[in-house]
Amino acid sequence: MDVRGDFRKATGFNPYTFQLEAMESLIEGSSLIVRAPTGSGKSEMVLIPFIFETNENLPSQMIYSLPNRTLVESIGERARHYASYKKLRVAVHHGKRPESQLFEEDVIVATIDQTAGAYLSVPLSMPKRWGNIFLGTAGSAMLVFDEVHTLHPEKGLLTSVAMSIESAKLGIPFVMMSATLPRNFMERVKALAEKKGGKVEIIEVEDEQEVKSRARRKVGLNTEPLFNGTSLTVKEIERQAEDVDKLIVVVNTVGKAQQLYRELKANADRPVVLIHSRFLEEDRSQKEAKVREIFGKGSSANEAILISTQVIEVGMDISSAKLLTEISPVDSLIQRAGRVARWGGKGEIVIYNVGKKAGNPYVPYSKELVESTIDALKGVELLDWQTEIELVEKVLSKPFESYLDPYKFYERLGGLARAVYEGKRSYVEENVREAYSVDIAIHDDVSNLNPDDAWKLKRVRVDFRVLRGKFDLIQEAGGKVYLVEENFILDEYSSRYTLTQISRKDDIQPFEFYIIEGLSYSPELGLLFDRSGDIKRFEFEEKDNATNVMGESRMKKESWVEHSRKTLDVLRVYMLPRYDYPIGAFAKYFGISKKELINWIELSVALHDLGKLNIYWQKKASWRPGEEPIAHGFEKKGKLPPHATVSAKALERYLGEYFEDRGLAKVFYLAIAHHHSPWSSKFQKFKLIPNVVDYILQVCPLEDIETSIIHSHPAGSLGFNYLNVAEENEYYRLYGLVSKLLRISDRLATGGESYESIFSS
Questions:
Q1: Beta 217-222 vs 497-501: how paired, if at all?
Q2: Contact (Cβ atoms closer than 8 angstroms) between residue 149 and residue 746
Q3: What burial class does residue 358 get, using C-beta atoms within 10 Å of its C-beta: 0-12 exposed, 13-18 middle, 19+ buried?
């Protein structure tokens, strides 16, 4: 690859020194941990080599993970532009826009929770029964984690580290990037990955003058209000706004932002915009567009004041000459500073104290981190890259070292294993959320609300501690709080969801959905914990009905042999070439030839429907002895017995006899058993039809299959139905890849569809 030439072709610019070093290391098979300032082109140095080297020197797919939807949309747009040079497919995937049906695109730009859900076989925006298909991508793709400093250090950050070092162990490169990672943390992650056999390079920007936007930038730091104990008030905002046209104000809590906005807007001599996390999706999107219109590059707007919380720290490509901010941890402050003189020139950041409050005055941040930041800021007057690095090292080195404490790390691995075993989406969120949050909807007549309709109400997300803190006030004002629970045990008399009134604030739990009477909402101010807003109930929204995306196609009559051969053809023509890189990586790791691994994948695909050669299944499919056994396109005589788990059980002895490595036998056993659902754990009694071996040999010539196959068995369980993501990670990932190859091949062969059909909505 001509790294420099391809980069210039795609971007129109020559790469910086650190970008060139990073791209060359990637292509040589190294993972990257990158520390570089905001606006320095970190995304390009990852996207461009992948696009030009996919499935050759780099994996077949990339999952680019980000902390929020705004960033996902922004990076997704850039990825589409660059991917067009090689006609690669790009999907944007987050809770409100889950574009990827099966995580099959070349580049998937997703929020971190969507990536974690895929990795844990519990896709958050698609049916759970497709979990192992999504795992097949997350376990074999090049994983990129950007802006990792924004993730909860003991949850999302450790989950990212765990996923990354297991990728490196398999020879699949990962990338972690941030402007504010301390050196000891980067070195520790590198050591963990290399201990498992991976190769890792730490990439840092040595001289910010090389980065054009940073070379022309000079940002002063005014900490006088901080050390004088001055709080950020409307009077301060009005005073500071006198000498600038556009001013950005950042505070730490939504309540403070709403208060400042209300007071300022009453007498403001210019437009005032409010943005924070407690807006409905459509209102927040409109506000973000308005903010970019006023504060974005090339804006023609004259004067404005933006009141914001930390939501603008990442993902908002905006700038002003002056920014006022409440004190926050150093990594947060550096990100806020990235909104000052972003494209060059002079700027100023003014830092304020937060005032005296009972308890922790720096909520939602750690008191210790903020106090360490205050100490580190003494005497700092200019905020350049070198200063930012020094501040990060002073404040964050010790806390980040503790995050990788072995106990905390293994505790997180246990959390990942629990999410896979339980298969609950709340357990996925538990492993990544930067805050223990709840979803809230408002309604003024919950007693007359159908529980099934309740689930469809629009909602906003808040920290569960905020709801607990407001609980007494809600009750005193006559309001009520209801928990919306999903009922998993269904019968014809029960609803899918139930509403339970909460009587104690201690019953408010994270990751749940609550409907509240007594609150209100304003498109201008957001969610309000009183009745002052003009909206007292949220509207309903249609939830994405993803269950039909991979629906049954109209099937033609097809014998068992015909279907098995077709599925094998699809695998060989489309899937094996598509996933050549990860197949080679797994073969190398397990010490077997690529040809041998492909042979076993082909066997799994060829015999995935062996359970249909069960005499009980064939009889329900109108088969008669002496006829060709059928696979599709028949008239059923009653309910068909499950066949996927029967296929695995019938092959159990054959797999066990071949593989000395018990883990590999489990991989193929479960991939076959789970080719309709990754949660299947039992099989019904079966008896294979006469001459079953003759039909097997027409598809897959195997020695000793007659004596190794289990011809009949009473009903039972698989013995195990999952692989431990923490203790059997390499097998767990290979299981995902084999499952994906099998299930997609089966789908395309069954429906007679083209590979391209996977990508059409």
A1: unpaired
A2: no
A3: exposed
Is residue 121 within 8 A of residue 678, CB to CB? The reply is yes
On whether the CB atoms of residues 564 and 607 are closer than 8 A, the answer is yes
User: What average pLDDT score do residues 328-334 get?
Assistant: 94
> Distance between terminal CA atoms of the chain?
34
Specify the pTM.
0.89
What residues contact 534, with CB distance under 8 A and at least 6 apart? 520, 522
> Which single residue is written with the structure tokens 């091949």?
745
Tokens found for residue 95: 């809770």
Q: 């006899």: which residue's tokens?
A: 657
Check if the beta carbon of residue 576 is closer than 8 Å to that of residue 601: yes
Q: Which DSSP state fits 480?
A: E
Q: Please report the DSSP string for 543-591 in residue order.
A: PP-GGGTTPPPPPPPEEHHHHHHHHHHHIIIIIHHHTHHHHHHHHHHHT
- Residues of the chain by 3-state class (helix, strand, coil), percent to 5: 45, 15, 35
Of the candidates 746, 731, 749, 756, which has an alpha carbon nearest to the alpha carbon of residue 139?
731
Distance of CA 149 to the CA centre of its chain: 15
Smallest Cα–Cα separation from 429: which of 157, 155, 153, 164? Answer: 155
Identify which of 299, 293, 308, 237 has the alpha carbon closest to the alpha carbon of residue 268.
Answer: 237
Query: Which residues, in sequence order, are bridge partners of residue 500?
Result: 483
Whose tokens are 């991508």? That residue is: 137
Torsion on CA atoms 740, 411, 115, 456, rounded to nearest 10: 100
| Among the listed residues 353, 324, 317, the one whose alpha carbon sits nearest the alpha carbon of residue 221 | 324
Helices (H), 365-458: 367-377, 385-403, 406-422, 425-430, 451-454
pLDDT in tens, 171-225: 999 999 998 999 999 999 999 999 999 999 999 988 777 777 777 889 999 999 9
How many angstroms separate the CA atoms of 124 and 100, rounded? 12
Closest of 108, 169, 116, 114 to residue 141, by C-alpha: 108
Contact 30, 173 (CB under 8 A): yes
Phi–psi pair at 87, nearest 5 degrees: 55, 40
Structure-block tokens of residue 561: 């042999």
Q: In this structure, what are the phi and psi dihedrals at residue 520, rounded to the nearest 5 degrees?
A: -145, 175
Residue 548 has pLDDT above 50, yes or no: no
Between 755 and 587, the more confident residue is: 587
What's the rounded Cα separation, in Å, for the pair 720 and 648?
12
Where does the pLDDT of residue 424 fall: very low under 50, low under 70, confident under 90, or very high at 90 and above?
confident
Residue that is written with structure tokens 């050759």 in the block? 56
Alpha helices in 124-219, H assignment, sequence order: 131-138, 156-169, 183-195, 212-215
Both tokens of residue 144? 């990129």
**Do the Cβ atoms of 651 and 607 come closer than 8 Å?**
yes
Structure-token match 């020139």, residue found: 345
Phi-psi region of 591 (alpha: psi -120 to 50; beta: other; left: phi over 0): left
Q: How far apart are CA 160 and CA 136, in angstroms?
A: 17
In DSSP terms, which residues pair with 515 in a beta bridge?
441, 482
Question: Which segments of 635-700 does DSSP mark as H helices, in order?
Answer: 644-658, 662-673, 692-699
Question: Considering the chain, what percentage of its residues have pLDDT values greater than 70?
Answer: 96
Place of tokens 């301060």: 236
Record the tokens describing residue 162, joined without a space: 């765990």
Q: Are 571 and 608 in contact (CB under 8 A)?
A: no
- Residue 68, amino acid: N
According to DSSP, the β-strands at 630-632 and 558-559 are antiparallel
Residue 749: exposure state from Cβ atoms within 10 A (0-12, 13-18, ≥19): buried
User: Which single residue is written with the structure tokens 């054009």?
Assistant: 212
Is the distance from CB of 97 to CB of 142 less than 8 angstroms?
no
**Please, what sign has the CA dihedral across residues 362, 363, 368, 372?**
negative
Strand partners, 63: 108, 143
Strand, coil or helix: 336: helix
Number of H helices, E strands in the chain: 30, 27
